[in-house]
Specification:
about 260 residues, mainly alpha, elongated
Length: about 260
């Protein structure tokens, strides 16, 4: 306890190294197909299917709010028909992946940390090692792979529903022409914009699953330890998503945009 309090930098670096090792071990396990397919399907159902309502609500109301806000500014310069193109690009490149990932970090990341933390406290993880079963193969790999599969699809869903909801607001509440709106969306939204959002979602998926599993497997004793690990998993994953988003954006801008 004293060492952690006196050396926060060392503690952070140690956690970073431990998370990195867990991520690499999980990738090796996935590549070797050492996980159970049934566990993968269960995790995809938990992450992807059961997160539908959260993602749909997030995407829908984000698209509606952005449309309503942007319209005020574009109307001042007589560019009403450009409203949905801005919503489309913003959701495809940034907000779709980031907002969806933050929602999943809060819902799924917390659940992963709590599940593995409870197993750690009740010594189920130690029992797996006693039975010569790798906790990484049995617990982490299916969760990581399921997150890799589910989060990009959820992000694409959020982008699509935001466009639909934004168009509804623009056409039925603001009285704009749907033909001009959609023509601007298709003209200004490039395939690279969509790819940027999906690549970000894939990266954020690794961040959420790895941090959540790491926090759960290294939690303290008792209910307090599980609760603390759950909170730390959500906070750490959310902050890492926001920080890494900046650097990923710089790299993808260089690779995807400047090449055109």
């Amino acid at each position: 306890m004293g060492r952690s309090a006196d050396n926060p930098v060392k503690e952070a670096l140690a956690d970073l190294g431990s998370v990195t090792v867990l991520f690499l071990e999980s990738l090796r396990s996935i590549a070797a197909k050492r996980f159970r397919f049934r566990d993968l399907v269960e995790q995809i159902h938990f992450i992807g299917v059961k997160s539908q309502s959260v993602v749909l609500l997030t995407g829908a109301f984000t698209g509606m709010v952005m449309c309503a806000q942007f319209y005020i500014q574009f109307h001042k310069v007589k560019m009403d028909s450009a409203v949905m193109s801005v919503v489309s690009v913003a959701m495809a490149r940034e907000l779709g992946a980031v907002l969806t990932s933050l929602m999943i970090a809060g819902r799924v990341g917390a659940a992963m940390a709590a599940q593995l933390g409870t197993m750690k406290v009740t010594e189920q993880i130690d029992a797996l090692r006693t039975l010569a079963t790798s906790p990484v193969d049995y617990l982490v790999s299916p969760r990581l792979l399921a997150m890799f599969i589910s989060l990009p699809l959820l992000t694409a869903e959020a982008i699509a529903i935001s466009l639909v909801s934004g168009m509804v607001v623009a056409v039925f509440l603001l009285g704009l022409d749907p033909v001009f709106l959609w023509s601007n969306v298709t003209f200004y939204t490039w395939s690279t914009d969509i790819w940027m959002g999906l690549i970000k979602a894939f990266i954020f998926a690794g961040i959420i699953a790895t941090i959540a599993c790491h926090k759960g497997m290294h939690c303290g004793q008792g209910a307090e330890g599980v609760g603390k690990a759950t909170t730390e998993a959500v906070v750490a994953a959310s902050i890492t998503i926001l920080v890494s988003n900046f650097f990923v954006t710089l790299v993808l801008n260089k690779l995807l945009i400047y090449q055109e």
